[in-house]
Amino acid sequence: MHFMLGQNSEAGKLFEEARKIDREDRPRPPFLYSQSLFRYGYFLIETGHADQVLDEAERDQEWGTNGQDSSLLSRAIRLLVLGAARLSLMEREVRSTDFVHGTQEILDDAVAMFRTAGYADYSVRGLLERARFYRLRHQIEDDDYIRAQEDLDRASSEAERGQMDLLRADILLERAASYREFTRMMTDAEREALKGRLSGLLKEVGELVRTMQYARRDGWLKELVD
User: Fold this and answer.
1) 142 and 90 in one domain?
2) Residue range 195-220, pLDDT digits in tens
3) Which of 53, 93, 145, 150 is the most buried (most CB within 10 A)?
4) CA-CA distance, 178 to 174, in Å (whole number)?
5) Which domain of life is it from (predicted)?
6) Which has the closest alpha carbon to 202: 183, 167, 174?
């Protein structure tokens, strides 16, 4: 809850306490598993510690799992967190061909596994991260703009159906970011056509973020508006 409200200091203390208990008591399943891994992993990524996520996963092959008892959903969550961490590095211009290709494979697998597991909210999250991947790669020859919009359309349909308001806000923000990124590669006419749509998106998501007190997204919203 603290994380969603943008209270990162309080969230960090609670996460550290949970990790301390995990190290001392070694519970099964561990703290770094399933939805706890999802929450803590994204906290690390969004507070500038994506490298820590990837380093821990590389050092320990059991990271993010419950050994042989790992569920399909939990294995997909592990891939989602790893994919999101790699996207954070792509934003910092880590763009080698192998790294980018590996990131796409991880996210494709996560999306497929969420679909098989049947969890609509996590399916939306997987589609969101893959749309973000296409935005960051932004290769015209691979139709990345079209692919990003298709994933966002699917995510939006699921979020609307399930009344997932926080995820609706994330989808609107990612779509606005996608428009901003890809307009650089469009004709003047295409750019002009998107201008009004982008303005409407930012107004809608701004109201959502304020109404839900979704302070976690304040910085991203401000960046897009500015």
Assistant:
1) no
2) 889 999 999 999 999 999 999 999 99
3) 53
4) 6
5) Bacteria
6) 174
